[in-house]
Write a structure and sequence with these properties.
The protein has about 375 residues and is of the alpha/beta class. It has 14 helices and nine strands. The longest helix has 21 residues. It is globular, with a radius of gyration of 21 Å. The chain starts with a helix and ends with a helix. It is an enzyme of class 2 (transferase). Belongs to the aspartate/ornithine carbamoyltransferase superfamily. ATCase family. One of its GO terms (biological process) is 'de novo' UMP biosynthetic process. Keywords: Allosteric enzyme, Plastid, Pyrimidine biosynthesis, Transferase, Transit peptide.
């Protein structure tokens, strides 16, 4: 067990707060200055902490190394996949692994999370709310904010955020407009987590996806991954591409109907990072080469009135028993869910069907993020 895991484990056992990374003893913390360039102060008074040396001695932990203090660990918001470096990902995953053994905790007792969902959600909203409650926090929720919040009266997103931050300590938001999460983070003085912004990004889904791949395959460097389905509108595959580009010798295969091909911005980004990618129309061939077949739903809601385009794209690529037959024994099938008919039910019985384990991993990743953002590492 590493020093970080040991300190976190001991802090849970003895009921004290783990050490923060920030060198300052202030009860306020700066929101990190990320790639979209905003900063601000969190209003919520944070728990005071002792120095690493004193805390380690109190917990009888000897020679336990701590994370390096640095800007990359000052996590203020979770908005886009590009904001994470590889060592930060490793640190988040380490905290998430610690969360797997926690059924109930009180480390976030006294904290309130507001969930603002302007689009439908089951797994993301419930996993965030479950994560907060399992750590002892409370939840304020608006499930269909587009229709039943003041947005229906014409209130701006900025005014909504300024109001809600007066009630809560952290905001988790899903919105139908790309870029809405950046606007919210620029407005808020408390942490904001992007739970999906239209066809833009879904960074916490990407985090749990990478975490799942590592748990299932045993590595991230050198993997081959096939992204299948709606790649033009799929915010999950966009965020996943950004994260996996941090690893060495990764290759992407893009398999999709022409109308929902992966957009050039992702292809250009991968090329700029020296990441190999290839487009293919042959799912069977790609499945035989890959460690991960990442299937996605053709998203009807992104087609507007063009039902003809939707019907032409839907059902073209289906993961079924024939696909499983050509896959390698160690490979897995993943899906961000919900699914329609793009993965046959018969696949569920195969141990390589990882999508329900993938969904469970979302709980641990979101527990980790809430802890890190609210009380530190």
């Amino acid at each position: 067990m590493s020093g970080a895991s040991l300190l976190f484990s001991c802090s849970i056992q003895f009921g004290v707060s783990p050490p923060k990374l920030a060198a300052s003893s202030s009860v306020y913390h700066l929101k990190s200055i990320s790639s979209f360039g905003h900063s601000g102060f969190s209003k919520k008074s944070k728990l005071l902490h002792k120095s690493d040396e004193i805390l380690c001695k109190a917990l009888q932990v000897e020679n336990a190394p701590c994370f390096t203090v640095g800007q990359k660990f000052q996590l203020g918001d979770v908005i886009e996949a590009q904001q994470f470096e590889r060592d930060t990902l490793n640190a988040i995953f380490e905290v998430a692994r610690s969360m797997e053994s926690i059924e109930r905790s009180q480390i976030l007792k006294g904290y309130l999370m507001a969930t603002l969902f302007y689009e439908p959600s089951t797994r993301t909203r419930l996993s965030f709310e479950s994560a907060m409650k399992r750590l002892g926090g409370e939840v304020l929720t608006t499930e269909n904010a587009r229709e039943f919040s003041s947005a229906a009266k014409g209130e701006t997103l900025e005014d909504t955020i300024r109001t809600v931050e007066g009630y809560a300590d952290i905001i988790v938001m899903r919105h139908f407009e790309r870029g809405a999460a950046i606007r919210a983070a620029e407005t808020a003085s408390i942490p904001v987590i992007n739970a999906g912004d239209g066809p833009g990004q879904h960074p916490t889904q990407a985090l749990l996806d990478v975490y799942t791949i590592e748990r299932e395959i045993g590595k991230l460097d050198g993997i081959r991954i096939g992204l299948v389905g709606d790649l033009a509108n799929g915010r999950t595959v966009r965020s996943l591409a950004y994260l996996l580009a941090k690893y060495r010798d990764v290759k992407f295969y893009f398999v999709s109907p022409h109308v929902v091909k992966m957009k050039d911005d992702i292809k250009d980004y991968l090329t700029s990072m020296g990441v190999e990618w290839e487009e293919s129309a042959d799912l069977m061939e790609v499945a035989s080469k890959c460690d991960v077949v990442y299937q996605t739903r053709i998203q009807k809601e992104r087609f507007g009135e063009r039902f003809d385009l939707y019907e032409g794209a839907r059902g073209k690529y289906i993961v079924n028993q024939e696909v499983l037959n050509v896959m390698q024994k160690h490979a897995v099938v993943m899906h961000p869910l919900p699914r329609l008919d793009e993965i046959s039910v018969e696949v569920d019985r195969d141990p390589r069907a990882a999508y329900f384990r993938q969904a469970k991993n979302g709980l641990y990743i979101r527990m980790a993020l809430l802890k890190i953002l609210l009380i530190g590492w």
